[in-house]
Design the sequence.
């Protein structure tokens, strides 16, 4: 048995990253797409085999054959369409950030519980071998007490008319890529910071670059870097009292290496490639089929959003 998915909007991430693994999945089926663009509907029909294509999101949500909905819409539309889907009894896999703020997230979570459906934020990087290896190092206590974390996700944005630069659609570097380092630090620390400091650069009403210092009650610190305006950087490091670990390409599924340093040894740990979107789609689908909790919990998403609220308050207010 496979979970039949409907996709709201033919976004780049849907076309290039999420629909293809649905076609290969043993647990999911790309069943329907909705788009108001005739050009995009035609392009999807030519590229992929799905049973139904709708001109409106409402029509897709009325289809009783659809069990789950994937939402790759602009950030400002996540809450509205996730709630509408859940009220129709659909499970929802929603692109990050799941919501623009904690108030939206709590409303979405309440609707998911009321309708007994699964809601999950699509942090695909958590499914990689790279992150599983980092978690193993942390669980074994190899690094000792964590003292500092640094995590960066930057790229140079050169696409015109992108929604990433439109404040009314939830644009900005922190929402788009900053949520990844923030989630990574939350995974390591498993708590919210006691204090936050932010330096940011604004352009066209959105943050195009932000550096954030998080301070914790334990004395630990973390620095996050996110941006659209410089050469790409995708990297993290965790430093403890007994060792440190470097994580190049933190948020990718690439083959690579981790670099672990302790008093006893310096070690290069091989990282096999990971089909992160495939693993994400399969885990979410198995959660529906088997009635289990997915990897990304709503508690984790809420923690992320609460801290993001505090960061954005310093950026925009």
Sequence:
């Amino acid at each position: 048995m496979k979970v039949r998915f409907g996709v709201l909007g033919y976004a780049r991430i849907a076309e290039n990253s999420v629909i293809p693994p649905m076609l290969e999945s043993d647990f999911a089926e790309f069943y329907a797409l909705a788009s108001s663009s005739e050009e995009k509907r035609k392009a999807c029909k030519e590229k992929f085999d799905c049973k139904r294509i709708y001109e409106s999101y409402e029509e897709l949500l009325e289809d009783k054959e659809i069990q789950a909905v994937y939402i790759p819409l602009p950030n400002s539309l996540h809450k509205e369409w996730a709630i509408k889907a859940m009220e129709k009894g659909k499970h929802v896999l929603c692109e990050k950030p799941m919501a623009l703020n904690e108030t939206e997230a709590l409303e979405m979570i309440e609707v998911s519980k009321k309708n007994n459906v699964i809601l999950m934020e699509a942090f695909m990087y958590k499914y990689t071998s790279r992150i599983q290896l980092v978690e193993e190092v942390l669980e074994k206590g190899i690094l000792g007490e964590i003292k500092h974390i640094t995590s960066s996700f930057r790229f140079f944005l050169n696409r015109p008319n992108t929604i990433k630069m439109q404040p009314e659609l939830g644009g900005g570097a922190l929402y788009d890529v900053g949520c990844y380092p923030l989630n990574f630090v939350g995974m390591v620390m498993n708590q919210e910071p006691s204090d936050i400091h932010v330096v940011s650069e604004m352009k066209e009403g959105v943050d195009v670059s932000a550096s954030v210092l998080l301070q914790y009650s334990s004395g630990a610190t973390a620095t996050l870097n996110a941006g659209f305006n410089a050469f790409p950087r995708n990297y993290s490091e965790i430093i403890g009292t007994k060792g440190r670990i470097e994580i190049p390409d933190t948020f990718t599924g690439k083959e690579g290496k981790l670099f672990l340093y302790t008093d006893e040894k310096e070690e290069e740990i091989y990282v096999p490639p990971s089909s992160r979107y495939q693993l994400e789609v399969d885990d979410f689908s198995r959660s529906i089929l088997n009635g289990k909790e997915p990897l990304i919990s709503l508690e984790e998403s809420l923690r992320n959003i609460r801290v993001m609220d505090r960061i954005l308050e310093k950026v925009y207010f």
In short: The radius of gyration is 20 Å. Residues 129-273 form a domain with the Dihydrodipicolinate Reductase; domain 2 fold (CATH 3.30.360.10).
